[in-house]
Write a structure and sequence with these properties.
The structure holds 2 protein chains of 2 kinds. By secondary structure, chain A is an alpha+beta fold. Among the domains of chain A are: about 1-190, ATPase, nucleotide binding domain (Nucleotidyltransferase, domain 5), CATH 3.30.420.40; about 260-340, Actin, Chain A, domain 4; about 475-605, no CATH class. A 9-stranded antiparallel β-sheet of chain A has the order 22-26-27-28-25-23-20-21-24. In chain A, strands 1, 2, 3, 6, 10 and 11 form a 6-stranded mixed β-sheet that branches. Chain A has a 6-stranded mixed β-sheet with strand order 18-17-12-13-14-19, sandwiched between helices. The longest helix of chain A is centred in the middle third of the chain and has 20 residues, at about 280-300. Chain B contains 8 helices and 5 strands, in the order ααααααααβββββ. Chain B has helices at about 5-30, 30-55, 60-90, 90-120, 120-130, 145-160, 165-170, 175-195; strands at about 200, 210-215, 235-240, 245-250, 255. Chain B starts with a helix and ends in a 16-residue tail after the last strand. The chains are: A alpha+beta, B mainly alpha. Chains A and B meet through strand 4, strand 5, helix 3 and helix 9 of A and helix 2, helix 4, helix 6, helix 7 and helix 8 of B. Strand 5 (about 45-50) of chain A pairs antiparallel with strand 5 (about 255) of chain B.
C-alpha cells in the first residue's frame, strides 16, 4: 500500500490553483489526516516563497527582461516561462506577455485549444502557447512542488483527483485529463468543483452531516470563484437505509467572478477621480483595484464603517507627493457590489442575453449580465423538473416555477463576506416564500478558498478507502446530429435530427451504451458528426431520434470525429458501424465506433477541440 | 629540511576548510541544483590549491601525501557522488544529504590533521606536555550579522509598503494630510509583510500599566528593568511596554547569485 500512501487533490482553478492531500495511512474512518501543500513560486525576481495558492498566471518574459539565474525554482524550472505570483504581478505591468484564465479558453468552443493562441492578441514577436500547454504548465508546477516535499512518494504514484467546473463539456474534461496525463499523473480521476466543495463540507462535519441533511433535501451549491460562477444541485436520497448524495443538475459555464467585482469598484472610483480631473494610467488602475479589494473587505466585514480611504501610490519614488487619495463609501459598495452583482430580483427574471452574431474577434465569452442572482434564477427555473424521477422525492408542487432547494452551500473567495452569503440566501428565500415553500438552510462551510482542493483529496481517499460518494454520472444527455433522409430542397439546409447517444446520468463503470442505428463510415476519410448536449432532457433514452426540440433545450458542442484506418480495408470502402458510449474510470466520456459485422476492431471517436470553424 | 609542515598544512587545511564551508552553505542556499553547478568549480579549485600546497612541501611529506591521497580522494569522491546525485534529484533530498557531505569532508580534513600531528612530531610533542591545558578559545564577543536577511526584508518592505520611498522623501514641504495618505500605503503594505513573513507576539501578555514581578533569574534579554534598580530580585514594577518578540520567521528563499543589494529595480516603461 505504500505505493499510494497519499490521496492528492488538485484544484486547477481559473485564477488560483491549490494542492491538498490526505495521508491515507494515518486516516481511519471519518478521522481524516489532511494537509495543504504550500507551493514554492517566484514572488519577485530571485526570491522564491511557498504560498498556499498558486495563481494561475503564466508570464512569457522577454529574453533580456530578467537574469535567468533569478528565475530558478527549487527544481530548476524553465526561465522562459514564469508561473504564479511573479507572473501575476509582472503581468499587470506588461500585459502583452501574460496568460490568464487559460482554463476558460480550454472550454472555449470557437478556438483550437491546442494551438498557440495565448496571450490573446500579443504582438507577433511574443511566443504564444496553447490553453492546453498553459494547463500543463500549472499542473507540472504543482507536481514539482509535490515531488520536492515527497521525494519518495512522487505524484505519479499517488491517487490524484483534478477538479473541473461542473459546466465543463466532455471535450474540456478530456483535455484536462490529457493535461494531467502529460505531467505523468497515472491514477487520475476528475471531479466537478461544486461536488468537491460538498465533499469538503462532508469531511469537515466528521460524520455529523448525516444529522444536518435528510432525505428529500436538495442542496444548492453556489461557487463563485475569482473568474467563474458554477452552480450545482445535489439531492439527498436513501439507499438501503443509508443516506446518499446524487448530483441532479449542473449550471452553464458563466464567466463572472470576484475579479469582476473588484474591477467594478475600481472603475467606480476611477470615474470619481476623473470628475476631479485626475486621470489614472494602467498601473495606477491596478493599484486602485488592489486598494478597492482591501477597502471592500473591510467595509463588508465591519457594518460600523461608513467609508475607507483608498490611496493610489505614485509609481515613481515620490510616495508622499505623488499619491492620489480617494474614498470608498458603504453606499458605493452597496449600490455597485450588492445591487449590481446580487440584486434582489424576482424568481422569474433571466440574465440579459448576449448577441452572438456581433462578435468581431474571438475573445472569452464573458457573462453579459453581472447579476449572479439572475443567473441563479435562470438555473433553478431551467431545472424545475430535476428531481422528478428521483426515488424517494416528493414531487414538487405542480405550480412551482423553479426547483426549490432546501439547503445552500457557498464556496469561493467571494463568499468570505458574510453579507454576500446572507444576501444570496435572502433573495433565494424570497423566491421560496413567494411559492409557499420553506426557506433554505445555510450549510456552514470551512475554508472557502481551499475547500475544492481539500474536497478533491478527500474524494481521492474515499474512492479507495470507502466513504460517502456523490452519485451523478453524466450531467447532460448527449446527441449526435443526423441529417434526415428527406429529398434535398435547393436553398434549404437538410433537416437535422438528434439521435440520443448518451443518456442522462450515465455513471462511471456502468455498461457501455450503443444506439441501434447504424452509420456508414468511409474508410480512410475523417468523418465528423455534429454533437449536442442537453442538461434538461433527462428522459430521452439511447437510440431515441428527436425531430423537434426547443432551442434552449439542446446546446451544440464541439464536433466529434473519427477516421477508420486503411490497414485491413480498402480506402473508400463504406463500413457500417454503431456508436458506443461509456464513462471511463477517469470520468471522461469515451466514444467508440464498432463495426456491425462482428470483429474485434474498435475505433476511437474523439472530440474535435480545434474549434468549430471559428 | 626545516619542517615545512606547519605552513603547507595550514594552507591545505584552510583550503579544505574552505571546501567544507562552501558545502555547509548548502544548508542555507536552497536552490541546490543551480547552486551545485555554481559551487563545483570552487570545490575543485580548492582541492587543486591544497594539492599544489602539498606538492610544494618537502619530499618526505610528498611521500606521505602520495600515501594519503587515495584515502582523501575516496572521501572526496564520495562527497562528489553525493553532490552529483543531488544535482539530478530533488532539493529536499539534498538538504538531507548536506550533513553527510559535510561529514565526509570533515573526515578527509581529520585525516590531514592527524597526519599533521604525525609529520610535525618534534615541535608538537615537545610542546604539549609542558603547556597548561589550552584555555577554551573565547567565542568571538561580537559577531557580524550577515546582511542578506536584512536586505531581503528591506526589499520586501519597499515592495509591499514603499518604506524606502517614504523614508527617503523630504517630508517637510507636505501637509499632514498628504503624509497621512502616504502613511496608509506604508502601513497596509508593511503590515502585510510582517503578517506574512514574521510571526510577532508581545513578550508579556499583561496589559501595559499592570504590576508584574520579576523572579530571580529572569531573562535579561527579553525583560529590561529600569528606574530604581537596586537590591536583588524579585523586582516588582509596572509594565511600561509589553515588548515584541519574533516567534517565527518565514523569509522567502533567494536564488544563488541574486543581487540582494538591489532593493527595488529601476522601472522603465517602454
Amino acid at each position: 500500500m505504500s505505493e499510494t500512501r497519499y490521496a492528492v487533490g488538485i484544484d486547477l482553478g481559473t485564477t488560483h490553483c491549490a494542492l491538498s492531500y490526505v495521508d491515507s495511512e494515518k486516516s481511519e474512518g471519518e478521522d481524516i489526516v489532511q494537509a495543504l501543500v504550500p507551493v514554492p513560486q517566484l514572488v519577485t525576481a530571485g526570491t522564491v516563497e511557498s504560498l498556499p495558492l498558486l495563481p494561475s498566471f503564466l508570464y512569457l518574459p522577454h529574453q533580456d527582461e530578467f537574469r535567468s539565474s533569478d528565475l530558478a525554482l527549487p527544481w530548476g524550472g524553465d526561465p522562459s516561462r514564469i508561473g504564479g505570483e511573479l507572473a501575476r504581478t509582472q503581468g499587470t505591468m506588461t500585459p502583452i506577455r501574460l496568460i490568464s484564465s487559460a482554463k476558460s479558453w480550454l472550454c472555449h468552443p470557437d478556438v483550437d485549444r491546442k494551438a498557440p493562441i495565448l496571450p490573446a492578441g500579443a504582438p507577433d514577436e511574443v511566443p504564444q502557447v496553447s490553453p492546453f500547454e498553459a494547463s500543463v504548465h500549472y499542473l507540472s508546477h504543482l507536481r514539482d512542488a509535490w515531488n520536492g516535499l515527497h521525494p519518495f512518494a512522487p505524484l505519479d504514484r499517488q491517487e490524484v483527483t483534478v477538479t473541473v467546473p461542473a459546466s465543463f463539456d466532455p471535450a474540456a474534461r478530456e483535455l484536462t485529463a490529457e493535461a494531467a496525463r502529460t505531467v505523468g499523473i497515472k491514477h487520475l480521476v476528475l471531479l466537478e468543483e461544486p461536488q468537491s466543495a460538498l465533499y469538503s463540507w462532508v469531511n469537515d462535519t466528521k460524520g455529523d452531516w448525516r444529522n444536518q441533511v435528510r432525505v428529500g433535501d436538495v442542496i444548492l451549491v453556489v461557487d463563485v470563484g475569482g473568474g467563474t460562477t458554477d452552480l450545482s444541485l445535489i439531492a439527498v436520497t436513501e439507499n438501503e437505509g443509508a443516506l446518499e448524495l446524487t448530483r441532479v443538475a449542473v449550471g452553464e459555464h458563466i464567466l463572472l467572478g470576484g475579479d469582476n467585482m473588484d474591477l467594478s469598484l475600481a472603475y467606480l472610483l476611477r470615474k470619481k477621480l476623473a470628475q476631479s480631473g485626475v486621470e489614472l494610467d494602467r498601473w495606477q488602475l491596478q493599484a486602485l483595484t488592489h486598494g478597492c479589494r482591501h477597502a471592500k473587505e473591510s467595509l463588508l466585514a465591519d457594518p460600523e464603517l461608513e467609508l475607507i480611504p483608498v490611496v493610489v501610490p505614485s509609481r515613481g519614488s515620490r510616495l508622499i507627493g505623488g499619491s492620489i487619495r480617494t474614498e470608498l463609501t458603504r453606499e458605493e459598495v452597496q449600490t455597485s457590489l450588492i445591487e449590481g452583482f446580487f440584486p434582489a430580483v424576482p424568481a422569474a427574471s433571466r440574465p440579459a442575453g448576449r448577441s452572438r452574431g456581433a462578435l468581431t474577434q474571438v475573445g472569452l465569452p464573458y457573462a453579459q449580465d453581472p447579476a449572479v442572482t439572475r443567473h441563479l434564477a435562470a438555473f433553478l427555473g431551467r431545472q424545475a423538473g430535476a428531481t422528478e424521477d428521483l426515488a424517494g422525492f416528493v414531487a414538487q408542487h405542480p405550480e412551482a416555477s423553479f426547483l426549490h432547494p432546501t439547503a445552500v452551500l457557498f464556496n469561493g473567495g467571494v463568499f468570505k463576506a458574510d453579507v454576500l452569503r446572507q444576501r444570496v440566501l435572502e433573495v433565494l428565500n424570497q423566491w421560496l416564500t413567494a411559492e409557499d415553500a420553506p426557506p433554505a438552510r445555510l450549510l456552514e462551510a470551512g475554508d472557502l478558498d481551499l475547500a475544492v482542493a481539500r474536497g478533491a483529496a478527500f474524494y481521492a481517499h474515499a474512492r479507495r478507502h470507502g466513504g460517502v460518494r456523490i452519485r451523478g454520472g453524466t450531467s447532460h444527455t448527449y446527441y449526435v446530429g443526423v441529417e434526415s433522409t428527406m429529398p434535398a430542397i435547393p436553398g434549404m439546409d437538410p433537416e437535422l435530427q438528434a439521435l440520443c447517444l448518451v443518456p442522462f446520468g450515465l455513471e462511471e463503470g456502468s455498461e457501455p451504451v450503443a444506439p441501434p442505428q447504424e452509420f456508414g463510415l468511409v474508410v480512410g476519410e475523417p468523418v465528423r458528426f455534429r454533437f449536442f448536449g442537453s442538461s434538461v432532457r433527462r428522459e430521452d433514452e439511447v437510440g431515441e431520434l428527436l425531430e423537434e426540440w426547443l432551442d434552449e433545450e439542446l446546446e451544440e458542442l464541439e464536433e466529434i470525429q473519427t477516421t477508420l484506418p486503411t490497414e485491413e480495408r480498402k480506402k473508400g470502402e463504406v463500413v457500417a458501424v454503431r456508436l458506443q458510449a461509456a464513462v471511463s474510470e477517469v470520468g471522461t466520456l469515451e466514444l467508440t465506433a464498432i463495426p456491425v459485422e462482428p470483429t474485434d476492431e474498435r475505433w476511437n471517436v474523439t472530440f474535435n477541440t480545434r474549434g468549430n470553424g471559428g | 629540511m626545516a619542517s615545512p609542515a606547519p605552513s603547507y598544512l595550514q594552507r591545505a587545511s584552510t583550503a579544505l576548510n574552505h571546501v567544507r564551508q562552501t558545502l555547509k552553505e548548502a544548508d542555507l542556499v536552497r536552490t541546490v541544483p543551480a547552486w551545485i553547478k555554481d559551487q563545483e568549480p570552487k570545490v575543485s579549485a580548492a582541492w587543486a590549491t591544497s594539492s599544489k600546497a602539498l606538492a610544494k612541501a618537502g619530499r618526505a611529506t610528498w611521500v606521505w601525501v602520495v600515501e594519503q591521497t587515495p584515502k582523501v580522494s575516496r572521501a572526496l569522491a564520495r562527497s562528489y557522488r553525493t553532490l552529483a546525485k543531488a544535482g539530478g534529484a530533488s532539493w529536499t533530498w539534498t538538504r538531507a544529504q548536506a550533513p553527510k557531505v559535510s561529514a565526509a569532508l570533515g573526515r578527509a580534513r581529520q585525516l590531514w590533521e592527524e597526519r599533521a600531528a604525525a609529520t610535525a612530531p618534534n615541535k608538537m610533542k615537545r610542546r604539549t606536555p609542558k603547556t597548561a591545558p589550552a584555555r577554551e578559545p573565547l567565542p568571538d564577543a561580537l559577531e557580524k550579522a550577515p546582511p542578506d536577511s536584512a536586505l531581503l526584508l528591506l526589499g520586501l518592505l519597499q515592495k509591499e509598503g514603499r518604506l524606502l520611498d517614504f523614508l527617503q522623501e523630504d517630508i517637510k514641504s507636505y501637509s499632514d494630510q498628504e503624509v497621512g495618505a502616504a502613511a496608509r500605503v506604508l502601513h497596509q503594505g508593511c503590515q502585510r509583510v510582517l503578517r506574512e513573513h514574521l510571526k510577532i507576539a508581545p513578550v508579556r501578555d499583561e496589559p501595559e500599566g499592570s504590576r508584574i514581578t520579576l523572579e530571580q533569574g529572569f531573562d535579561a534579554a527579553s525583560i529590561r528593568p529600569t528606574g530604581n534598580l537596586v537590591g536583588d530580585p524579585p523586582f516588582t514594577g509596572s509594565l511600561v511596554h509589553r515588548g515584541w518578540r519574533v516567534v517565527e520567521t518565514r523569509l522567502p528563499q533567494v536564488a544563488s547569485g541574486h543581487d540582494l543589494r538591489i532593493l527595488a529595480a529601476a522601472e522603465v516603461e517602454l
